[in-house]
């Protein structure tokens, strides 16, 4: 039987790779990595911990970037973990000029209750930043 152990990477469909990469660097502290692929095009990834997010321009064709059947911008809902206290997360987002959608609120995480703060990325995807108690 197949058992999944972890998520390696996800792909976000974005309207503007440069804008999204800058936001994920500035607001969530992720590291940008650009790499040239066989087609000669550059792909941008955002690295954090042992994972990464590939930023896919929604205008890219299936021929240039094999992806979901109906890619759309702003349709993602992602939760990231931090060791920072929720009040520190709120202060950071406020200092970055990023509006809080809601939080801190208690939610159900994969390992139990988490304290979450919700914001939106530049494309409108819902971003949850959470910490376990």
Model description:
By secondary structure, the protein is α/β, with parallel strands linked by helices. It has helices at 17-28, 86-95, and strands spanning 9-14, 31-36, 42-48, 51-57, 77-81, 102-109, 112-120, 126-132. The longest helix is centred in the first third of the chain and has 12 residues, at 17-28. The chain is globular. The relative contact order is 0.19. The mean pLDDT is 90.
Summarize, please.
With 133 residues, the protein is α/β, with parallel strands linked by helices. The chain has helices spanning 17-28, 86-95, and strands at residues 9-14, 31-36, 42-48, 51-57, 77-81, 102-109, 112-120, 126-132. The strands form two sheets. It has a four-stranded mixed sheet, covered by helices on one side.
Biggest sheet features: 4 strands, mixed
Number of helices: 2
| Distance between the ends | 34 Å
Strand order of the largest sheet: 1-4-3-2
List how many beta strands DSSP finds. Answer: 8
H/E element sequence: EHEEEEHEEE
| Global outline | globular
Poorly predicted sequence stretches spanning 5 or more consecutive residues: none
Strand content: 35-45%
Class of secondary structure makeup: alpha/beta
Radius of gyration, Cα only, in angstroms?
16 Å
Helix coverage percent of residues?
Answer: 10-25%
* Whole-number mean pLDDT: 90
